[in-house]
Write a structure and sequence with these properties.
By secondary structure, the protein is α/β, with parallel strands linked by helices. It is built from ten helices and 13 strands.
C-alpha cells in the first residue's frame, strides 16, 4: 500500500475528540492528508447524539470559517439536535475562494496533485473515526463559493455525502480551468460566472460522471437556490444546474417518469419552489430548485431549510417509527449499488459503516 493511501485513510491524531472543547470553535490539528493546507475547525455541541451526523459548511469568497460560524445558526442548531459541524477555511490567500476549478479538485481521489476537495473529505473521515459519527449522515451546505464547493463535493464524492444545499452556486465543473491549464487552482471562470456556459442535460451529466469514472452507485440528493438578479453568478447558472442534476439523478424524463411540483411564494414571497421526484414517489423529493425573484447574489444562508432537508432534526427516528434520512436509502435511481467496479466493497452497509474506499485502482479497508 502506498504512503499516500495510508495518510488518507489511517490518520494519526495530534488532538483527540475528547480534547475538543464543546460550545466553541477550536482549530483541529489532525495528522491527515491535507494537500492544500485547509484549516480545520470543528464545532462540537455540549450534547452530542450517539453516532452523530456531520454537517460541512464551506464559506464564501472573502469569507472564513469564523464568518460562517458567527454569521449562521448552524452552531445553535447543532446544540439543539446534537450534530457535528466542520467549518473548513480556504487556504487561498488572494480572495479566500475555494478551488472549484482544478482537475484534481473535480476528481474522486485524484492521481494528480490533489485540490481542496480531498482535504475536506479527509476531515470528514477523521471526524467519523474520532466521534464514531454516522458515515451515512454526512451533509454539506454553502453560499456562493461555498455553494460551488457543495456541488463539487457531491459530484466528486457521491460515496461520502448524503445530500447538499447550494445557495447561489454553479453546476459541477462549470468553473473548470482551461484545457491547457487543468491543474490551476483558484481560476475565475468568467464565462461560467456570467452564465455563458450552456450544455445539454446529457453533456452536464457526463461532466459529473467524469469525476468518478465507473461509478454507478447511489447519488446524493440536492437543493439549489438562486436569485433572478444575481450579478456575480448569473441566473442562467440556476437553469444549467437544474439540467445537470436532474440528468444525474434520473429526474429529467417526461411526465410518465418525473413529477415536478411547483409551489409559489415558498419559503418566502416571490420565491418559487420546484420539487422533483419520480412518479409514484411524490413524498420522496430528491432535487429541489428555488428561484428567488428580484434577489441578487446576497441570497443568504437559510439554515433551517437545509437542516430540514437533511433531516438533521431527526434524532433516533424522531419517534415516528422510521429511520432518519441517510446515504444509500431511496432515491429515483433506487438504493442498489450493483454494477459498480468496487463490487462487494460497495454493498451499502459494508461501505458506509466500515469505510471501504476506492483509491487509485485500490480497494482499501480503513479498519486495517
Amino acid at each position: 500500500m502506498s504512503p499516500f493511501l495510508l495518510l488518507c485513510l489511517t490518520p494519526t491524531l495530534t488532538l483527540t475528540a475528547a480534547a475538543v472543547p464543546t460550545g466553541s470553535l477550536p482549530k483541529i490539528s489532525a495528522d491527515i492528508y491535507n494537500p492544500t493546507n485547509i484549516t480545520f475547525y470543528l464545532y462540537q455541541p455540549a450534547r452530542l447524539t450517539p453516532n452523530p451526523p456531520i454537517l460541512v459548511s464551506p464559506h464564501w469568497c472573502h469569507g472564513s470559517a469564523l464568518a460562517v460560524y458567527n454569521g449562521s445558526s448552524y452552531a445553535k442548531l447543532a446544540e439543539q439536535y446534537g450534530f457535528l459541524v466542520i467549518f473548513p477555511d480556504s487556504p487561498n490567500t488572494d480572495d479566500h475562494c475555494w478551488d472549484v476549478s482544478s482537475r484534481a479538485t473535480l476528481s474522486h481521489y485524484p492521481a494528480t496533485e490533489p485540490g481542496d476537495t480531498l482535504g475536506i473529505v479527509n476531515m470528514v473521515h477523521w471526524t467519523i473515526k474520532q466521534y464514531a459519527a454516522d458515515a451515512g449522515r454526512v451533509f454539506v451546505s454553502g453560499v456562493s463559493s461555498g455553494a460551488m464547493m457543495t456541488e463539487v463535493l457531491l459530484g466528486a464524492y457521491p460515496d461520502v455525502f448524503a445530500a447538499g444545499t447550494a445557495f447561489a452556486g454553479v453546476p459541477f465543473g462549470c468553473f473548470a480551468s482551461p484545457e491547457n491549464d487543468k491543474t490551476r487552482r483558484g481560476y475565475w471562470n468568467d464565462d461560467c460566472a456570467r452564465g455563458k456556459i450552456t450544455k445539454s442535460p446529457a453533456e452536464w451529466k457526463a461532466v459529473v460522471e467524469g469525476a468518478y469514472p465507473g461509478y454507478r452507485g447511489w447519488r446524493p440528493k440536492l437543493q439549489i437556490f438562486h436569485g433572478t438578479e444575481d450579478d456575480v453568478l448569473f441566473y442562467p447558472n440556476f437553469e444549467e444546474s437544474i439540467k445537470q442534476w436532474t440528468a444525474v439523478l434520473g429526474l429529467n424524463g417526461d411526465a410518465s417518469w418525473t413529477t415536478v411540483a411547483k409551489t409559489d411564494d415558498t419559503p418566502f414571497a416571490n420565491w418559487t419552489k420546484y420539487a422533483y421526484s419520480a412518479v409514484g414517489h411524490g413524498d420522496e423529493t430528491w432535487f429541489e430548485a428555488y428561484s428567488a425573484k428580484g434577489v441578487n447574489h446576497n441570497i443568504g444562508n437559510h439554515e433551517e431549510i437545509a437542516v430540514k432537508f437533511f433531516e438533521l432534526d431527526c434524532v433516533s427516528g424522531n419517534g415516528e417509527g422510521r429511520e432518519c434520512f441517510r446515504w444509500g436509502n431511496g432515491g429515483p435511481l433506487g438504493n442498489s449499488l450493483k454494477g459498480t467496479e468496487e463490487g462487494a466493497c460497495l454493498e451499502v452497509a459494508e461501505f458506509r459503516l466500515n469505510s471501504c474506499f476506492k483509491m487509485r485502482n485500490h480497494v482499501v479497508d480503513s479498519r486495517r
